[in-house]
Amino acid sequence: MELRGLGKAAKYYLMIVNMVFVVLAAITVCCIIYGYASGNPASSMTTLLVGASVTISSCGLGFHAARREIPKLLKIYAGIMIGLLILRLIVVVILATTTSIVYAGLNQSEMDSSLDDEEREQVKTAVSAIFATIWVIVSIELILEIFLVITAFYFAAIIERTNRAEPLHAMDKYDNSKI
Length: 179
Hints:
This protein has one domain (8-160). It contains five helices and no strands. By secondary structure, the chain is mainly alpha-helical. The chain has helices at residues 8-37, 42-68, 71-109, 117-164, 168-171. Helix 1 (8-37) packs antiparallel against helix 2 (42-68). Keywords: Membrane, Transmembrane, Transmembrane helix. The chain crosses the membrane at residues 12-36, 42-64, 76-106, 126-159.
């Protein structure tokens, strides 16, 4: 039975935002792989990788829940997003620590005579670009997660309220003027 709860706009909104999340998580994974290769602290890179993996899998769940309009799945998805929100805040703390460690290391390398000025500048630019990208992505994901949690619970409530109402085919038997 086709549910009346969510309009097409609401469904597509939730589906598109989940797809955006997957793209952001994929970009994060690329930054993490480059971060591993550049020798950045493995603990923070691993934390980011776990966060990105959970994001991708939960977004698949959210996409399916929105497309099929399943209220229980939307609530589970919202719960996972709350967990991700907490994880993201932990990641922000770890990322801030890592950023300061890496920049301290870069400043120390300036005194290292084994690198010439051009190589040193290339390393600094590459590392700055990686961390700037990750910071932007994490910030966007934090904002999106807050909206997704609110909308997932809201959409689940709409669908449940609609499901309690009479099905569409039963409504067709009534004279609309009496309603």
